């Protein structure tokens, strides 16, 4: 068993940042675990961008190009990566915690009879290779896990590591995708892409969220404007989603998404446990709420007690001015 | 057609929880327990398919402690027909592999052509079980369904992917996880709640369910917890009253933190 394989998901002509974040971390881990650092790129029409991963530390990039690998469905990826594992015997296979990453990692783990540590926010050398740290209950506990046997498969939460370039270059190896009939049973037949420029909640480095304090669905425009000025994604509390003010995929909290952005701005959100456990692992939390007793002020790094309809548009204007 | 819905008992989402530092497992005897909120969408979808005539039986399947029956009964109150709960001390400490192996075996026994799951559980938050079960059961699988239609021997799903909403078609038998966008789960009626108590609730051991004990529990796990820490809780930072310059103060703070 030797080397780490990082699965980097292509996005447009580049890569989802989480893949680059993991590669950057894996460069450091490799000092202890030894072996080469390899990357896998699976997609449709992605051969040209594979070499970019060399700049983040991949020494070898395996690239598989096939229509089915660009469908968003994971089963074809499982076939290709399982074969790659058979041929290369990597000690660890690391995935970003995207929808496709989760699906691929889970099915691959079952296929290989290998352990999966999900939702990792840190990886370290230790035990028989790697150790993975994951927050439990929204960061109330930090659980360190190891693997029994290999390969050691981990899912890494976006924004856990900094993506930094190493200035290296990679050998690109084309892999012939050998995809089984079984992996092609589910077929993607149509795609409605997300709006251009919209940032996914889990991958966003800045999130601006709105809650009950917005009072009405149209008032989310205030939150959206601030998000646009910061290049941020928009989140919503359970109260706002349950009231039908904002769509389900944007819900942050125990029954929504768990996020760890660099900056989380909560507008009109009280900060009940339900919400807190979904965002308290954010690096910096800013809260705006008119109720000075709101629990969110007990764990926000900076809080403003005031009317969000005054503060938020002003902040948007200040940020837009600053950008020039 | 029969539909199996994989359900899980979880700690009450509104309560604070903790992990036993000795065993690395969730402390299970504390506070209220409930049916995983995400699972209600899968139960609702199955019951609707039955009501629409597309299915004739809805079976809840689960792996967990015996007293989970109390929480899982809510699925029966919503309209599922029966519950099969695998409960065995030897299954404690199962990881994804063990859970997928156990559920796969129970699924096979039910003869259900369609297996539905919630998109994730509110305790583990991993969202990996549908893919793991799909692979373990050898079925076609589709995750994150915003809508689901059964057409004879196949299904059509509107799927929330990383890049948008995709239409996916798959043959039955299949495993599908559903998102919260798929429906609005019903509140059980009083009649439903009363009736649920009389519905079959089978609690079986690993041996009775034909599950290989070596594949589940701690002995089957391929991951192990080696440490649990309680990091210092986040503390209150600076809180100011807006006196017209609140926005400027936030900006100054963000500049100081080098965020903008």
Describe this structure in words.
The complex is a heterodimer of chains A (324) and B (260). With 324 residues, chain A is α/β, with parallel strands linked by helices. Chain A has seven helices and 18 strands. In chain A, the strands form four sheets. In chain A, strands 7-11-6-1-4-5-12 form a seven-stranded parallel β-sheet, with helices on both faces. A five-stranded parallel β-sheet of chain A has the order 15-14-16-17-18. In chain A, strands 8-9-10 form a three-stranded antiparallel β-sheet. The mean pLDDT of chain A is 95. Chain B has 260 residues and is α/β, with parallel strands linked by helices. Chain B has a single domain (2-220), classed as 3-Layer(aba) Sandwich (Rossmann fold), CATH 3.40.50.620. Helix content of chain B is 29%, strand content 29%. Chain B has helices at 37-51, 69-78, 96-110, 129-137, 190-196, 206-209, 217-220, 246-256; strands spanning 2-6, 9-11, 33-35, 57-63, 82-86, 114-118, 140-151, 154-161, 164-171, 174-178, 201-204, 223-229, 238-241. Chain B starts with a strand and ends with a helix. The mean pLDDT of chain B is 93. Chains A and B meet through helix 3, strand 7, strand 10, strand 13 and strand 17 of A and helix 3, helix 4, strand 7, strand 8 and strand 9 of B. Strand 10 (141-147) of chain A pairs antiparallel with strand 12 (223-229) of chain B, so a sheet runs across the interface.
């Amino acid at each position: 068993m030797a080397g780490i394989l990082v699965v980097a998901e292509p996005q447009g002509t580049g890569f989802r940042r989480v893949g680059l974040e993991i590669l950057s971390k894996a460069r450091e881990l490799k000092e202890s675990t030894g072996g080469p650092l390899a990357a896998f790129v699976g997609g449709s029409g992605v051969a040209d961008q594979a070499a970019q991963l060399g700049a983040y530390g991949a020494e070898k990039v395996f690239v598989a190009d096939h229509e089915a690998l660009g469908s968003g469905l994971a089963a074809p990826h499982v076939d290709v990566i399982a074969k790659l594992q058979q041929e290369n015997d990597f000690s660890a296979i690391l995935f970003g915690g995207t929808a496709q990453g989760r699906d691929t990692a889970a099915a691959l783990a079952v296929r290989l009879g290998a352990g999966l540590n999900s939702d990792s926010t840190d990886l370290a050398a230790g035990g028989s290779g790697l150790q993975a740290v994951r927050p439990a209950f929204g960061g109330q506990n930090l659980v360190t896990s190891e693997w029994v046997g290999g390969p050691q498969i981990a899912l890494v939460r976006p924004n856990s590591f900094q993506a930094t370039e190493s200035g290296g270059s990679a050998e690109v190896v084309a892999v012939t995708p050998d995809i089984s009939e079984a992996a092609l049973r589910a077929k993607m037949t149509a795609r409605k892409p997300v709006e251009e420029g919209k940032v996914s909640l889990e991958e966003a480095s800045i999130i601006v969220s709105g809650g009950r304090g917005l009072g009405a669905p149209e008032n989310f425009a205030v939150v959206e404007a601030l998000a646009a000025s910061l290049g941020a994604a928009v989140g919503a509390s359970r109260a706002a989603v349950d009231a039908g003010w904002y769509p389900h995929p944007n819900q942050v909290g125990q029954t929504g998404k768990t996020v760890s952005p660099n900056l989380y701005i909560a507008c009109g959100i009280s900060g009940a446990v339900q919400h807190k456990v979904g965002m308290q692992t954010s690096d910096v939390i800013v809260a705006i709420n008119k109720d000075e007793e709101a629990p969110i002020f007990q764990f926000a790094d900076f809080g403003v007690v005031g009317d969000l309809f005054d503060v938020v548009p002003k902040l948007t204007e200040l940020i837009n001015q600053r950008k020039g | 057609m029969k539909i199996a819905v994989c359900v899980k008992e979880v700690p009450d989402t509104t309560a604070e929880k903790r992990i036993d530092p000795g065993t690395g497992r969730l402390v299970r005897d504390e506070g209220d327990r409930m049916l995983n909120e995400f699972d209600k969408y899968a139960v609702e979808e199955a019951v609707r398919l039955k009501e629409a005539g597309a299915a004739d039986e809805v079976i809840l399947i689960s792996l967990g402690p015996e007293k989970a029956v109390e929480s899982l009964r809510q699925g029966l109150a919503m309209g599922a027909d029966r519950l099969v709960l695998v409960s065995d001390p030897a299954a404690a400490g199962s990881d994804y592999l063990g859970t997928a192996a156990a559920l796969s075996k129970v699924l096979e026994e039910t003869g259900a052509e369609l297996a539905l799951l919630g998109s994730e559980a509110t305790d583990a938050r991993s969202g990996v079980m549908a893919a793991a079960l799909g692979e373990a059961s050898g079925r076609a699988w589709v995750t994150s369904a915003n809508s689901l239609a059964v057409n004879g021997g196949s299904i059509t799903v509107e799927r929330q992917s990383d890049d948008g909403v995709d239409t996916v078609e798959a043959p039955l038998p299949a495993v599908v996880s559903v998102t919260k966008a798929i429906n609005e789960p019903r509140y059980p009626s009083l009649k439903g709640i009363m009736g649920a108590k009389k519905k079959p609730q089978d609690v079986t051991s690993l041996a009775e369910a034909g599950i290989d004990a070596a594949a589940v529990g701690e002995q089957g796990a391929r991951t192990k917890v080696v440490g649990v820490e309680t990091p210092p809780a986040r503390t209150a930072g600076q809180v100011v009253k807006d006196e017209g310059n609140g926005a400027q103060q936030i900006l100054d703070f963000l500049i100081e933190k080098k965020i903008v």
